[in-house]
Amino acid sequence: MVKRTKAPAVAAVAQGQSQKSSATLSAELKTLLDLLAKLAAGDSWHDFHGDISGVGKIIRQNEDKYISGLPGGTLDDKFEDEDVALSRVVSKIGGVSFENFGNYSNFGDYLTGDGLEQAYTIETVNQNQYSVRSIITSKGKKKEGTKEVIDSYQFVNTLDIEDESAIIIDATAVSIMDILTSDSTNLAQKKEMNERKVYYIMAPELINDPAGKSAADDSIFYNNSGKVKGVKLISCVPNSPPSLNYNYTFNNVLNTSQLSSDTTSAYDKFFTAYNFQLSEIQPVRKGLKTEMTTNLLINAKIQGKGYSENVLDSKKKNKIPYLKSLLINIIKTFTSNKEKDKQTFLCETLDTNKIYRYNLSNNTKTRYLSASIAKTYTPSMDITNSIWIWKNSLDGTTAKCSKIQ
Q1: C or N terminus of the chain, fewer CB within 10 Å?
Q2: CB of 359 closer than 8 Å to CB of 346
């Protein structure tokens, strides 16, 4: 549970910045953009390093291409280090300097150890403060039959969720919903929870996220079933028309004080070189149920030419496996040797177990054990049983490939 508090020093910092020279502000803005670029690359590494080997090295080797999708900034070799990334954002935890924790793992231990005892404050390098309270929701293992999950009373009271609170869950919500709709074995605690209202907010940003969510008309919600188990959990959907869109972009004319100010719209501080237009929630009726989706329009300007891509039911395209497949194809494009592609052909002989690479530049061939074939190369003519002419469908060039005896 995180609550934002205002640090008294913020106003003074912003006021002081307005008195600085434009050169100083420009340098500060570059420092901020560099920081955000490193954090963006670090986030990319965090999401994909388990599935794409050497993704950090690939990003560094193609830094110019990576940052072309960002509004500015440069990278360094430490962007994939989560300890470094966190230290660039977090200054203090519970009044203690983040450096004293040593590493990310110790910070995690604090969240599930000492941090459980009472609410504590996390302060960022920009002196923004957040009141945090942690809780362990389950112990044991399901496979071993030892898993124990806390009930709604423990969850709500430990996190100080008051009556008629509104919650936003930016994660897989199913397990938390199960907790909120579970009764305590203590009858007094059960009665207290059954009378407590908790509003579950559904917003386009959450629907766009691929993590599992309960539908607004699910029977788990009190407003649909009339039954109370756990808290009175009430789903809330926007009353804005589905035709409404929200534009996420980065305003390049903002200075550092404007970027750090709460009065500047968050829609103008989305760290990207593109424009993302997220739709309001789109209700889709399917039988007795109503599914909720969002659409995402992406606009880009590359070398003065405009491009756009309209992504329907965008959460499906935000899933890591789908994004991973796209990134692998992009990485192949980044790392391919185009000159070599024009000169080298993968040829399949009549014996499909004998496959070799034919090199036009020196008429050499290399034996391959794999029986797969490059789909971009197709035979245009079968001269004899031992000689084929292969045509490269990319540039029209051909190569003669002889059968390996």
Answers
A1: C
A2: no
